[in-house]
Amino acid sequence: MRNLILDAGPFVALLDSSERNHERCVNFFKEFHGQVFTTEPVLTEVLYLLGPSIRDQRAAIEFILRGGAILVPQSLGSLKRAMELMAKYKDVPMDFADSTLVVLAEEMGASEIFSLDMKGFGTYRIYGKKGFKVWPE
Length: 137
Prior knowledge:
- This protein is an alpha/beta fold and 137 residues long.
- The chain has a single domain, classed as 5'-nuclease (Rossmann fold).
- It has 7 helices and 5 strands.
- Strands 3-2-1-4-5 form a 5-stranded parallel β-sheet.
- Strand 4, helix 7 and strand 5 form a beta-alpha-beta unit.
- Helix 1 crosses helix 2 and helix 1 packs across helix 3.
């Protein structure tokens, strides 16, 4: 089964029909077969980006509760690795949410990511070696 890592950009686009990448992201998500994973920092970023409306934030939380993505909590080891990655990619730069996604990819052995951040995820490497396959194309 394919494993896909979910970044904040397409997560927001899936929920917000006014977002310019909404249709592209919805079409990709409908066609994807496999499991989708994200991290708590990404969910927090999504809630912030959606704004203070409880209606909009509820949609993001319900997406997780209904199984749209599996929410993976951070461990002490993953937090340490995230800090290492942020320092390594400080010139890109890499934010905390993105660093947790790279750590998750490393821990899972996954290399497919659903992201609108081609600059970042085109640069980041899994264990410093393997690049990501970024969706949607």
